[in-house]
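Researcher: Go.
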Amino acid sequence: MSIVVWVILGLIAGWLASVIMKRDEKQGVLMDIVLGIVGAVVGGLIVGLLGLSPVAGLNVYSIIVATFGSIVLIWMGRIIR
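Model: Structure:
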């Protein structure tokens, strides 16, 4: 995937995860993108361990996997705090 696709996927997934997890912090677009990209990697690793296909392109499945990974990251961050 190109860098532009990763940024778009990261923005969508990071924003969705922030809304779902009701994050009150004003993290901004850049942090949503970073959260979404890292979440896509984490989500891809998790679904890969389950035998499913990892993130591949900009489609609904990839957005769901990236959002799931972003939610896991937010959840882990709350546990650590």
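Model: Residues 14 and 32 are 4 Å apart (CA to CA).
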